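pipeline stage [seq->struct] | target=Isoprenyl transferase | organism=Stella humosa | residues=239
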Amino acid sequence: MAPADGHVPRHVAIIMDGNGRWARARGLPRAAGHRQGAEAVKRTVRAAGDLGVRYLTLFGFSSENWKRPEPEVNDLMGLLRHYLRAEIAELHANGVRLRVIGDRNRLARDIRALIENAEATTGANEALNLTVALSYGGRQEIVGAVRRLADDIRAGLIAPDQIDEATLAGRLDTRDLPDPDLLIRTSGEQRISNFMLWQSAYTELHFTPTLWPDFGHAQLDEALRDFGSRERRFGAVAR
């Protein structure tokens, strides 16, 4: 069921943090935390649909995460392969559209092929729009948009004085998505870590101490209720 006041954000973005700490607290390897984190992804996708969220964006792997130890990166890529092979049929059956944003060129060729297949399979679905940010960084995304604008100017497709916020936003990876209404970060950290910098200009922030592997329906519902209690003014005067 939706939050009590029925005020459900259209687009929720989540920074999934705390897998390593979850594993360390239990004396387990970090890979175990990542595996439990993958289970939390499945729970949260189902919860988002149940609670009436239309767009859900998950920060799966940042451009900075490539700096992690190679065995950990390999574990994460293995989990990604498993998810793209094992979960797409269920997502499709439940009307979930999957898309991926970020620098795919750094991903292995077979992973890129799995992503393309998943996007093609689910492309017409409308129940929930699920976006996963992989090899993604907000600053890098903005730089890429500026480069595309520069190419268009060089090609004579647009004049410099025609550039406005909408023009730049139309070159971002998220050009087909509404800006997030609510951004959640798990694990108690209170920063947005280079995630959706442009898109989050007026996004409400919710920080929870829950580690990502423990996140699910109850925690998402709590965040949505917190969102529903706020007055969004977008720079205007309170009513």
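stage status: PASS
auto-comment: Confidence is low (pLDDT under 50) at residues 1-5. Helices lie at 19-25, 30-51, 70-86, 88-93, 109-122, 138-154, 165-169, 217-228.
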